[in-house]
Design brief:
By secondary structure, the protein is mostly helical. The chain contains 6 helices and no strands.
Length: 215
């Protein structure tokens, strides 16, 4: 009986890895589209969002089955509860990658202003945060989870830098104002992705220790 239960927990880990892979791909493709203005890439992000939504439902159903049929206690219950919380943040990351791609689609209609370095750095940092937060859960790596939490401050600082630069662009060139605002929205979505990755890391901490940084 315990062997079957362990298999079900392993399946949960695999499903989370798959969902993590989907949102990583969605973010990476959204960033690539931002640089290439490729309409097909933008459509791929939308398709990934649909897959992420379905994966969230599948994981939720699997977690509830584990709770109802196996009646887990202590650490196993914390792990399953954390997974249920994590998939909500993961689904929102997929939504925000799609939001980035939708803004990118609007930017393809007119010549783009240059992609700012802080936004590129935010994209790179948030993808790493998402990857590490999922890895931390799968490997019960508390240290990696804490590193993800610290990285959110870096993303927040990059957002402030991007916002400052975009405000300067608006002041200096009114014609670029609309695009600058769109670019600011993209930066804001990356900041939110970082927040969700931090949330995931905090639930990893809870699954391991029973303590939550904000709880």
């Amino acid at each position: 009986m315990r062997g079957k239960y362990e298999e079900e927990l392993a399946l949960l880990n695999n499903m989370l890895i798959e969902m993590g892979g989907l949102i990583e791909n969605a973010i990476n493709i959204a960033v690539k589209a931002l640089h290439s203005d490729d309409i097909e890439l933008i459509e791929k992000v939308r398709l990934y969002e649909l897959e992420v939504d379905q994966k969230e439902k599948d994981i939720e159903a699997h977690c509830l089955k584990l709770i109802l049929l196996q009646q887990p206690v202590a650490k196993d219950l914390r792990l399953i509860s954390a997974a249920l919380k994590m998939i909500t943040d993961m689904e929102r990351i997929g939504d925000q990658a799609s939001d980035i791609s939708e803004i990118t689609f609007m930017l393809t209609e007119t010549p783009n202003i240059k992609i700012l370095s802080p936004i590129e750095q935010m994209a790179e940092a948030t993808v790493k945060m998402v990857t590490n937060s999922i890895d931390a859960f799968v490997n019960s790596d508390l240290q990696l989870a804490k590193e993800v939490m610290k990285c959110d401050d870096v993303v927040d600082d990059l957002f402030k830098e991007a916002r400052s630069e975009l405000i300067s662009i608006i002041k200096e060139d009114a014609e670029s104002g609309e695009q600058a605002i769109d670019m600011l929205m993209i930066a804001k979505y990356f900041e939110r992705i970082g927040d969700h990755a931090e949330n995931i890391a905090e639930w990893v901490e809870f699954s391991i220790t029973g303590m939550h940084s904000k709880g």
